[in-house]
Amino acid sequence: MSPTSDVAYRRIHDEVAARAEALWQVASSLHADPEYAFEERRAAELLTGELRRAGFEVSEGVAGMPTAFVARSGASRPAVALLLEYDALPGLGHACGHNLIAAAGLGAALTARAVLDGGEGTVLAVGSPAEEGGGGKVLETEAGLFDDVDAALMFHPGVHDWVRAPLTAQEQYRVGFHGRAAHPTGNPTEGIDALAALVELFNVLAVLGRRLPEASHVQGIVTHGGEATNIVPEYAEGLFGLRAATTGALDELAAQLGECAAGVARATGTTPVVERATLRYEHFRDSEPLSERFAAHLARAGIRLTPPERGVYLGSSDIGNVSARVPAIHPFVAIMDENGSDHTPEFAVAAASDRARRVLTAVTEALACTAVDVLGDTELRDRAWSAYGRSATGR
To answer: Pairing relation of β-strands 122-128 and 156-158?
Structure first.
């Protein structure tokens, strides 16, 4: 197929304009009814209902998750996936703006299908639960949902207008120490203090932290410290969150955590247990050709994206795992000023604001344009895949 024509772009603009009110109602409904990790039943029902009515073939419960889904229009390559997130934050509701991510992905998928009108290629709307800690896209990636996809597209509302997402790799580890219980006054020399070992691990990690590379850090909490004050703790446990700029650096940091725990155990006479406690979020790998194309489309709405500020990292997301398999984009588009922050009550309010409504319409159009570009522009697909050292046809 040839690159997208101006006529197609105008059709996309008109389609999104016609759907704008309905998409805002979807975003508002999700915002008013927050659901949490792997429990987003009403959200999934709302979104899949819209997709079914538009003629998409919907598969629910994918990758072993009741609230995950894939909606498909078409059956041939090339294929583009629009990603929908819809989980909320306990106590804060949609303070990460996932109501807008879901509505934008939905709108872009519906628009792309309408404009292509059954033409070559496949449009997918992939519903991924539990981004806030559960890792829905990790499980979907491992289940092979993106194996026959040429691009994965989404956006994230934020406090910056950035063309790509500086997202780190992250995982959590549970570290426990087994000692021996004793009475601190009756037979203190027979005890082996597991809590003392855990406290010492915190001290060692504090020293380690001073020489870690940029973006790497370890943050821990005590989850079990003993049974009573008059018993030397025979078991103590902590939970440690690890982040690093790349997945490789995260591997190195996890190895260092294990070495520190082993050293502390030798020094204290305890026995360590180190095990990963969560799914791993890989770092995000931006597809520059696709991100640039999205930014060019968004600029028509007066929103200009810039590169992220050097040295600033904005947490982690399971989109990183998707980006390790297929070309992907995850731009940030501001719905409040830079002095704000997501994961706050103020951001939850912003996710239902007039500014968020304007951003939703603009982003939906830019995503739909980019999706149609992916399906219609062989050269764009090849440039996107070239970053992976392979071609679109030789994966």
So the answer is: unpaired
Task: Answer yes or no: are the C-beta atoms of 51 and 8 closer than 8 Å.
Answer: no
Where would I find the H helices in 224-275? 247-268
Q: How far is residue 214's CA from residue 4's CA, in Å, rounded to a whole number?
A: 41
Helix (H, G, I), strand (E, B) or coil at 345: helix
Report how far residue 99's alpha carbon sits from residue 367's, in angstroms, rounded to the nearest whole number.
Answer: 16
Distance from C-alpha of 24 to C-alpha of 143, rounded to nearest angstrom: 32
Distance CA 192, CA 220 (A): 22
CA distances from 260 to 81, 213, 235, 240 (A): 42, 17, 18, 13
Handedness of CA 306, 310, 313, 319 (dihedral sign): positive
At 24, is the secondary structure helix, strand, or coil? helix
Give 220's contacts (C-beta < 8 A, 6+ positions apart).
175, 201, 202, 205, 238, 239, 240, 241
Q: pTM for this one? A: 0.93
- The pLDDT score that the predictor gives to residue 390 is 62
Three-state secondary structure call for residue 304: coil
For tokens 């995982």, name the residue: 171
DSSP 8-state secondary structure symbol assigned to residue 336:
S
DSSP letters, 64-129, are G-TT-EEEEE--SSSEEEEEEE---BTTTBSTT-HHHHHHHHHHHHHHHHHHHTT-SSEEEEEEE-
Q: Parallel, antiparallel, or unpaired for β 57-60 and 69-73?
A: antiparallel
Q: How far is CA 82 from CA 44, 105, 130, 253, 327, in A?
A: 15, 5, 17, 33, 12
Region of 243 (left: φ > 0; alpha: ψ -120 to 50; beta: rest) is beta
Confirm if 328 and 322 have CB atoms less than 8 A apart: yes
Residues of the chain with pLDDT under 70: 1-2, 389-395
Smallest CA-to-CA distance from 81 within 31, 19, 144 is with 144
Residue 284 identity? F
CA atoms within 13 Å, Cβ hemisphere of 389: 1
15: left (phi over 0), alpha (psi -120 to 50) or beta: alpha
3-state secondary structure of 137: helix
C-alpha angle with apex 48: 44 to 53, nearest 5 degrees? 155
